[in-house]
Structure formats: structure tokens, C-alpha cells
Amino acid sequence: MIKKNMINLKTLRNRKVYGELESRKGNLEVKSMILSPNALNKISKTFEMGILSRENQDFFIESIIIDSKDQKLFEEGQSPLVKIENGWALTSDSRRNPLIFKGKFNGFVTVDDMLAVCEIVLGAMEFNLENIDKEFFENDIEYKNVPVIIYSTGNYMVNLLED
Fold first, then answer.
1. Which residues contact 115 (CB under 8 A, 6 or more apart)?
2. How confident is the model over 104-149, as pLDDT tens digits?
3. CB neighbours of 28 closer than 8 A, spacing ≥ 6?
4. How far apart are CA 101 and CA 95, in angstroms?
5. Are 9 and 44 a contacting pair, CB within 8 Å?
6. Is 76 part of any domain?
7. Dmax of the chain from CA atoms?
8. What domain range includes position 150?
9. Is 28 within the bounds of a domain?
């Protein structure tokens, strides 16, 4: 279900959000996620229309930073390689099977010429980490130019957070 909303997400400050990704195998903290201009436009259109159309389902995330301890969970199912006795191999039934995450994010938007905090919930997101740039820091990993597909399952909503 997509809750139609009139909050102008195009005013999202620096196109940046932070929050949490939830999956059936566990949750992980998103320390920072910067949406591409195209991603922000597509997500905004989805909430304006109250329906997810095919043209708005896929986009790129410019940058997503997570804690390095969550790398295994975030990358689970991304590779079609399977573990064998002496290493890794492709098999006839190998395929990518990434986790689907529910995203719950907070970001700053402009409402009536004032800065406000909004919560953005994206019900079902799949990240494709096969051909992306990855940078390692002391305790974090940054994934760059990550393709994302959002699916029509789950709840989608945007709300202003009150005191």
C-alpha cells in the first residue's frame, strides 16, 4: 500500500537520508544514503500519485554507507557463486538471490519555508551490488552508484515527524 502524500520530497536536503534496512534475516543501520536526482524524482512521483508505476521502480543510489559489521547481511545473495570444497564455483542452478529490504529513513525537508524532519518508508527494496564501487573505511563501507529496484509489496509512506 502506498500512502499518497503531499510532502515535497524534492526539497530533501542534499538528497540525503539515514535510517534502517529491515529484512527477514536481520536489520542494519544506514549511516547515510544519498539519492541520485533521478531516484528522488521517481520516489517523489510515487508518493504524489499514490501508486508505484514501472517507470518509477528502478533508480540509482549515489552512495550508501553502512557499518562494516553489516556487510555480510547487506551483500547476502548478491553473487551466483556457491561455496565448494576448494573455493567458489558457478553451478547450473546458480543465480543471484539478494535479500529484499524494507527501508525506514529520516531526512530533512523544507515545509512552509522551514526545515522539518520526515520519515520515509519504502516497503520492498532490492539492491544490486554486482558491479559497483566499494570503499572501505575504519568501521564503515561505502557503496557507490548502486542500482535499486523497489517493488509494490509492503507499505510506502512519508510523514513529518513531530516533537
1. 13, 108, 109
2. 999 999 888 889 999 999 999 999 998 899 999 999 999 999 999 9
3. 20, 21, 66, 67, 70, 73, 74
4. 19
5. yes
6. yes
7. 62
8. 9-160
9. yes
Number of domains in the chain: 1
Domain assignment present for residue 4? The answer is: no
Grid coordinates belonging to 38: 533521478
Residue numbers in the chain where pLDDT is lower than 50: none
Alpha carbons 140 and 119: distance in angstroms, whole number: 24
What is the 3 state secondary structure string of 93-133? CCCCCCCCEEEEEEEEEEECCEEEEEEEEEEEEEECCCCCE
In a domain, 1, yes or no: no
What φ, ψ does residue 148 adopt, rounded to 5°? -130, 140
